[in-house]
Amino acid sequence: MEVKRNDVEEKLIEQDPKSHYIIDxxxxxMERIACLPAKKPQPNMLxxxxxxxxxxxxxxxxxxxxxxxxxxxxxxxxDGKVVLETKPKPEVSKELQGKWDRLSSIDxxxxxxxxxxxxxGQAIAYYIHNQEMNDLKRELYGEDTLLEFxxxxxxxxxxxxxxxxxxxxxxxxxxxxxxxLNEYSFNEGYLSFNPDLSDxxxxxxxxxxxxxxxxxxIRQAEAxxxxxxxxxxxxxxxxxxxxxxxxxxGSDMETSIGVIxxxxxxxxxxxxxxxxxxxxxxKVLVKGHEMIYVKYxxxxxxxxxxxxxxxxDLYYHISLNSKATIxxxxxxxxxxxxxx
Length: 340
Fold this sequence. Notes:
This protein has 340 residues and is α+β, with helices and mostly antiparallel strands. Helix content is 24%, strand content 32%. The protein is built from 8 helices and 18 strands. It has a 10-stranded antiparallel beta sheet with strand order 1-7-8-12-13-18-17-16-15-2. The protein has a 3-stranded mixed beta sheet with strand order 3-4-14, with no helix packed on it. The N and C termini lie far apart (44 Å). The N terminus is likely disordered.
């Protein structure tokens, strides 16, 4: 499927002809920020963790409380509500996990095509005409709900253009100060969006409009005379949900750091960090802000740091991948640069 340029792309390139604008099918494009990235990637979470080296500066206004990985850590808002907490990684039966794994592996080419079908800043509902996939969805979801939804992110290789587009959409003007950078540089950034599903769900249940769209796409699939499997319908325009930065050392994406700022209005009001007994968990205080730091034991993520900015109603997360060599203190320095 050929993805054509739209008005958003033309406008961005007009502002900065050297910017690289990407419609990508990598995992990071496919999955959206809906909750805190856990140490194992889950649906709607950032998949590609990011890393960088920072200069060895002393961190001021920092205190650390160390907890056993099995102990619950909570961060509360000013009115006493829990906004961020740790929880043991939930156990899933092997049989059920096998079914979820099977669902994610069925007809990957059609899933990739569906993900690519959303243009930047666009939201779509899509139906994949695959009997095994849809039977498994019915079993796992417990309802005849076969639609899925996708939004198109805006990817930019120019930090200046990213900052401009982010601030126009009410997102923070983010960057890591150059004094904290050593051999690392900005690689790309992106704006992610949340679909507006207000017409499609009410109190968590599918509405008549939902089934109208589903039935329409199923009819198209059944009437199709070729091998087409993906059927798409544009839905209400989405709202921006997060802005992300990626810094890398050279061109190695496995030695990178990512900083994400997400609007809490489109998220669960209480975020969770999942961990295992082998992980190391701490509560830290940076410039008066409580944060949760995790040193992961597995080989996918290296470190993670999360906090809530109540004043601006934002959730922040810094994630490092397995090849990261920077220390916890350097991660905290980066976080300090985003606390105002």
